[in-house]
Amino acid sequence: MHFIQPEKHTRRAFLRRASQLAFTGAALPTALNLAAMADAAAFNSADYKALVCVFLNGGNDYANTVINYDNASYDQYAAIRGGSGRDGGGIAIAQSALTPTLLNPTVALPGGKQYAMHPAMTGLAGLFNSGAAAVQLNVGPLVAPITRQQYQGSNRTLYPIPPKLFSHNDQQSVWQSSQPEGATTGWGGHIGDLALSSNTSRVLTCISVTGNTVFLSGDDALSYQVSTGGAVRINALNGNVYNSAAVRGAMTQLALQTRTHVLENEYNLVTARAVGAESAITSALASYPANAAAFSAFPTGNNLADQLKLVARLIAARNELGNRRQVFFVSMGGFDLHDNLINGQATLMGRLSAALTAFHASTVALGVANQVTAFTASDFGRTLTSNGDGSDHGWGSHHFMVGGAVRGKAFYGKAPPVSVTNSNVDANDQWHVGQGRLLPSTSVDQYAGTMATWFGVQGTEMNGILPNLNNFNSVDYPRDLGFMT
User: Fold this and answer.
1) 288-334 residue pLDDT tens
2) Cβ distance 204 to 281 under 8 Å?
3) Element (H or E) spanning 434, and its range?
4) 324 and 239 belong to one structural domain
5) How many other C-beta atoms can be found within 10 angstroms of the C-beta atom of residue 107?
6) Same domain, yes or no, for 111 and 23?
7) Which DSSP symbol is given to 176?
8) Of the candidates 29, 39, 31, which has an alpha carbon nearest to the alpha carbon of residue 15?
C-alpha cells in the first residue's frame, strides 16, 4: 500500500496526462475531447454552495479547546496537565471556568462524558448549543485505519502511516493535499476543478484571503488571492507611474497586448485575467461595503474576522460575480505553543470564536446560512502532557464545523479516553501513542469527503479528490461521517 495511489485518480489523472501529451502534438484531438467531457461530467447546479477552510497554523492544542468536563474525565485531564484538583493549574483550566461554555448535545455522550469549549469561546459554544455548529472528535491524517499496536510495529507496507508526522510544514500539506511539503495540488482545488463549469467567473472559484496555499490549487482551478481589503491591484496599471498618465498607458499596453512569442503572450493573458478579475471584484464589492448591516457583527482588531468578513462580502456578491460554487481559505497563526499555552491560547481562541460567530451571523443576515459551511483544520493536535508551560507536537485533534447545513449540537467520531499510555498495558486505549498524542480515529479524508458530498461531488469523482478515502468504508470508518444534512 502506498500513500498516494495513482490508479485511484481515475479520470482526472488521465485528463492531466492527456493534456501533457497534447503539448507534443501526440494526443491533441483526444485531449480536446476529454476536456469537453470533463466539463460535462462536473456538477452544474443552480443553487449556491461554499466551503470555507479556517486553518490554524502551528498545531492547535486540542485538550484545551474541547475540554473534558465531567468529574471523572476532568480529574484525569487536570492531573496529567499539572493541575491542583478542580481548580486547575499547570496547563489545566479550572473546571469552574468551563461552566459557561459547557456543550449540551442533543444526544448525550456514553458514560456520562461531557465536554466544554475553552472559556474564551462563548460565541462558538453558543452556536453549538443552538444547533449551528458541531464537533468532530479526534480527526487527523491517516492512510488507512490503524491501531496503536500496528503503529508501534515496523511493518509500514501493511500498516502505512502519513509521512513526516509531527513536522509543521509537512503535516499542513498532508491535511490540505494528502501529500507532504512539495505537493502542487490540494483537495479544495480538486473540488474547485469540478466546480469550474458552474461558475461564469471561473477564476474566482477558489479564493484565498491569506496568501498562497496548496489547498486551493487544482489541476485546472487556480488559487486566486485577495487581501482583506479586496482584490489586489497591479499598481503600475491602476495609477499614474512617475506621476505620468502616459507612462501608465505604456505599461498597460505592454502588459496586456497580444504577443507573437507564445510565453510572452501567455504571461499577458494571465495579467489580463488578473486585471479583469480585480475590476469585477472591486465593482461587485462596492455594492456590499464593509460597514453594511449584514457585516456589523464582525469585531475589529481581529485579522481572522477581517478575512472572514471579506469572504462574506464575496459571497454576498456571488450573483454579480457569476459564482454558484466556491471554496475559500483563511487562516490564523500562533498555535505552536510550546510555552505560554494558558495565556497565548486564550487570546487565539477568543479571536477564532468571535470571527466564526460573526461569520455565521453574516450568512444568516444574507440568507445563505444553509449554503455555507465553515470548518477548522490545523497541522496537528498536541500532547496531553505538559512540557512545563505548554504542549508539544501531536497528531489527532478536535475540530469544528459551522453552518446551517451542519447537523449541529452533536459530537461526531469517537471520544478518546483521557490517557498518556504508550504501552500495551491498557488494551482498551487504542487512541494514544505516547504523551497523550492522539492516534486519529477519524481520517481527514472522511472529514473532507463528508463536506465534499454535501458540496455536490459524486462518488465516482471522490477518489480523484481524496486518494485514501477508499480505505475508509466500514462501520467504524464510514466514508460519510453524517454531520452534513
Assistant:
1) 999 999 999 999 999 999 999 999 999 999 999 999 999 999 999 99
2) yes
3) none
4) no
5) 8
6) no
7) H
8) 31
